[in-house]
Amino acid sequence: MLTTTATLSSSSASQLAPLFHSLSPNPISLRFSSTLQVTNNRARRTLTSFTRQKCQLPALRVSASYEAAPATAEASTVPSEMKAWVYDKYGGVDVLKFDTKVAVPKLLDDQVLIKVMAAALNPVDFKRRQGKFQNTDSPLPTVPGYDVAGVVVKVGSQVKDFKVGDEVYGDIHEKALDGPKQSGSLAEYTAVEERLIALKPKNLDFTQAASLPLAIETAYEGLERTGFSAGKSLLVLNGAGGVGSLVIQLAKHVFGASRVAATSSTGKLELLKSLGADLAIDYTKENIEELPEKFDVVYDAIGQCDKAVKVVKEGGGVVALTGAVTPPGFRFVVTSNGAVLKKLNPYLESGKVKPVIDPKGPFPFSKLVEAFTYLETNRATGKVVIDSIQ
């Protein structure tokens, strides 16, 4: 076996990824921050010529070392233990511990095992860690994490739609609050039912893909539940957040909204416009209750349902993700569904819908505590993503 390490830019790594997947049936480990690491017995003799002739990339610094080939492909890619973040009691960020000897999840017949390349953080992650729904939670200790993007390294006996080497993404917990898995995505490996994931959009890297699943499924399901459709108007509260930024885009480009308004702080108004908002409202200067117009649907992604219901048209819908719910507003908890991701992939691949990642990130795996601390300030723009997971 040859282990090859190449140092190159993030964009160059993205270009090279398809090559290495074609060179071997075995999964590979890619780091899209500053290095590309490949375990492959043909990579050495093809790497330099390919990058110069086809990718037109600058010369790479390549080092190699040989070792005896393992008895099976699985033995080289799936160890019995992995690195992961774990907590064994509920509380603040201080309960998170980095553990290098966590058992790799056992695979069920309908699951795939994913080598995690990137994972995203969501408010449900820290609310779960704080014990806010411990009555329906899985037993401690817990490896946190809902969103994942990575490479399939093993498939269960009943898996039909995925194979080893596939690049996938998804929310690994079918029910966000009701019995989520004990072993989440903030680890080197995670196991998930095939019905909950989809192939990663071809134009997105792992970091971008990891930012999407829970947020885009929440955005989509919320719009569907309100009966949103072409020609209707929408107001999004917290349009620059992880869910809100995707609600704007889906409403405009997937559902065919006639008009989209959204709120944010002063510095994020241009972002709202770039996402497709026809009206960007500075909540620090304007009171939405005094707007001269009302909307068919209000999507409250910040916890202001009492204000939201005052700007919705009679017979319209108000969906509230957090905070107290004022009638006719309603709340729902998203159900993870790979079919929704598959349906939305064409919009992602065409560029009509784009991931929004907070500019402070992505955070490396080693800085998870810092990433959670930042997320919990409620000041993030788009999604907080973790990469360099190894």
Automatic annotation (TrEMBL):
EC number of the protein: 1.3.1.-
Database matches in PROSITE patterns: QOR_ZETA_CRYSTAL
Molecular function via GO: 2-alkenal reductase (NADPH) activity; enone reductase activity; zinc ion binding
Short name of one Pfam family: ADH_zinc_N_2
Gene Ontology CC terms: stromule
An example Gene Ontology biological process: response to cold
Keywords: NAD, Oxidoreductase
Top-rank taxon: Eukaryota
Domain Enoyl reductase (ER): 91-386
Protein family: Belongs to the zinc-containing alcohol dehydrogenase family. Quinone oxidoreductase subfamily.
PANTHER family registered for this protein in UniProt: NADPH-DEPENDENT ALKENAL/ONE OXIDOREDUCTASE, CHLOROPLASTIC, NADPH-DEPENDENT ALKENAL_ONE OXIDOREDUCTASE, CHLOROPLASTIC
Protein name: Putative oxidoreductase
Source organism: Rosa chinensis
